[in-house]
C-alpha cells in the first residue's frame, strides 16, 4: 500500500473502517472537486459507466487531447535525453499556464523541433557526403597520378624504337596495349594479343586510328563487403573490368545510415556502356556511394579546394543550428516537469470524470466510491473548497450509503511497514478487517531468515549494504534503476531487519565467517590432553560455569560439532515451527471472534488447537524437558511408539512421572479432534440456513440501498431462496479437515528447513574459510595469498551473500505463506486504490 499521512493512530491488525459514499456534484465544479479529491487521495471511485466503451463516454475528447499532449511531451523528453539533460537535473519551476495555452505551446514547439531536426539531418547528410567526396578525390588522385607518370615515361622510352609499319602490324597493337596497361598499373610484362581481355581487344582493334578511351566509376564501399563486391564485378563482366581499392584509415560516417563504418575507396575501369551499366547496378546493390571524378590533375586540386570550402561553410551552419536546437531544448527542460505533471493530472481527472454518471435533467454528476470513515470531514472540506473556488451556486453533496458489498482493504502504513505489507499482499490481499499477518511478519520473517543465515560477519555485510541504500534513498527514489537493483532498493528496510536479526543469531551460533569468538567469557570446557581436538565430548571436562550466551566456542572444530549442532538446530526448528503454527491458529480465533462466528471457534479453533498440541505441542514439551534434565531419552522412539504401542512401558525413555498416561490422554484427544472438526459444522450450517429462511427474506428497509432492494425483489420474483448444498459443504469440510491433519505433520517437517539451511550456510562458510583462505595462508607466498583472498571474497559475496541470501529469503517466504498464513488467512480481499495524484504512474501508456 502506498505511504500516506493518516489521521488516526496506525492500527495494522485490522484494516481501516470503510464506507460507501455518494457524491452529487454540479457540472461547473466537477473538475475542481475531482482535482481536490486527487490531492487528498482518500476516495476510490467506482465506474458507473461499465456498459459504455471509452469512445462513448462524455469526456473522450478531452482525454484524446491529453494523450496527444502526452505524446508531444514524450517527444520532448527524448530530445532532452539526446541533449544530455538527465531527469534528475530538470527543474520543476515555471509560470502558471492553462491547459489550452499549454496545448498551443506544445504544438508550436513540436513543429519547430521537427523542422530543426529535419534541416539538421539534411545538412549533416550533405556534410558527410562532402567528406566522402573529398576522400574519393584524394585516394583516386593518388592512384591516377603515379599511373599517368609511369605511362608517359614508358611511352617516351618506346618512341625512339618506333618504325613505320602497317596499321595492322602486331607491334603497333602491342604498343597501344602497353599504354593501356601502363595506365592500370600492370607493368610486369607484355602479353600476347590472344591473352588480352576480349572486350578490351575488341574495342581497341575496332578503330586504332582513335585514341583508346576507358571509362571509370569511383566511390566508397563498406570494407566488409569489398571482397564480395570485387567477386560480383568480375563474374558479371567476365573479367573485363579493372578494380582498384584503397582502404580509409579511420571509420567514415555513412550519409544514409549516419553510423560510423569502415570503408574502401574504389575505382572501376571499364570499356563500353554495357559494362558501365552493369557496374552501376552492382554499386547500387552493395550500397556503394558513387562520386564524380576527373583524371585531370588541375581540376582535381580545384575540386578538392571547392569541397573543403563547402565543408567549412556547412560545419559553421551545422554548429549554429545545434546551438539554437540546444537552447530550445534547454528552455523546454526548464518547464518540462511542470507541464508533464499538469498533463498527467488533467488526464487522470478526465478519466475519473468518465467514471461518473451524468444526470442530464439535474445538470450534475453522480459519483460513488469507497473512503475511510475517518476521512469524511476531509472530503467534505474539499467539496466545500471546490464549490467556493468554482463560484458554483450549488454545493456538492456527500452522503453515506449502506451496502452489503465487501469494502476494499486499506492499511495505513509507513515506508518501513510498507515493505512487509507488500510481502503479505503478494500472497493475497486481506479480506476487509481480517487479521493482518503483516503485523507479525515484520518480526517473524527477518527472524526465520536469520535462523537460516546465522553469521554475524555476513549479517554486518548485509547491514552495510542496506544502510547504503537507505542513506541514498532520496537519490535513488527519483532514478530508474535496473530490475535487480530496483527490487533490492524496494526491500531495503526488509534487508536491514534481516541483517540485524542475522547478527543476533550469528552471536548465538558464535560464528563470524565460521570463526568462533569468546565475546562473553571463556569456554566452560578444557582439554584433558593435547589430542582433545580430535576427541568427542568425553575428551573435554567442564572447568567453569556454562558459557553465558550462545554456543560455547569450544564446540567448533571438534568431531562432535556436527552431531551437537544438528541436534540443537533440529530441535530448535521444531520449537519455532510449532510456536508459529500455534500463533496462526490463535489468529483464527481472533478472526472468528471479530466476525462473531461461534461455529469457527468451537468446531475449528478448539479441535485444531487440541490436535496440534496433543502431538507436536507434546513433542516440544519433551524437547524442553530433555534439555532441562539432561536425559538420554530417545524422542524418536517415544513419538513412534506413542501411536504403535501406547500401553507399553517407556522404560529408559521416560522423562517424568505419569508420562505414559499423559500420552494415552493426548492420543485420545487427537483422535477425538478429527471428527470434531469434520462432522458437527456442516449440520449446524444447514440448521442455521433453514432457520434464516424460515420466515422469508425480509430485511429492514433502512439498512438497504436502492440497488440491494432491486436485487431482493428480483430474487423474490425468481422463485424463493437459494438452496443449501449440504453435500458441497460436507465435502469442503472433509477436505479442510484432511488438509489440516496431514498439514500438521508436513508443516512441522517443513520447518526443518531452518535446520538444513542453517547447517548448509555454516558448512559452506567453513569450507570457504578453511579450504581457501587458510590454505592460501599456509603457502607463505604473497601471490598465492592474494589469489586466495580474492577467491574467498568472491565466493563469500557471490555464494553466501547473494545466493544464500536469496535462498533463505525464499524459504522464509514459503514458511509464512504456507505454514503460517494458511491457518487463518483467507487473503481474498481487494486493495483500496484511491484516486490520488501521488499514485500516478510514471510509465506512459
UniProtKB/TrEMBL annotation:
Keywords, in A-Z order: Coiled coil, Hydrogen ion transport, Ion transport, Membrane, Transmembrane, Transmembrane helix, Transport
A GO molecular-function annotation: proton-transporting ATPase activity, rotational mechanism
Lineage: Eukaryota, Viridiplantae, Streptophyta, Embryophyta, Tracheophyta
Coiled coil: 99-126
Chief location bin: membrane
Membrane association type: Multi-pass membrane protein
Compartment list: Membrane
Record GO cellular component, one term: vacuolar proton-transporting V-type ATPase, V0 domain
Any one Gene Ontology BP term: vacuolar acidification
Family assignment from sequence similarity: Belongs to the V-ATPase 116 kDa subunit family.
Organism (species): Cynara cardunculus var. scolymus (Globe artichoke)
InterPro entries in alphabetical order: V-ATPase_116kDa_su, V-type_ATPase_116kDa_su_euka
Residues spanning the membrane: 447-471, 492-509, 572-590, 602-625, 661-679, 783-803
Pfam families: V_ATPase_I
Protein name: V-type proton ATPase subunit a
Purpose: Essential component of the vacuolar proton pump (V-ATPase), a multimeric enzyme that catalyzes the translocation of protons across the membranes. Required for assembly and activity of the V-ATPase.
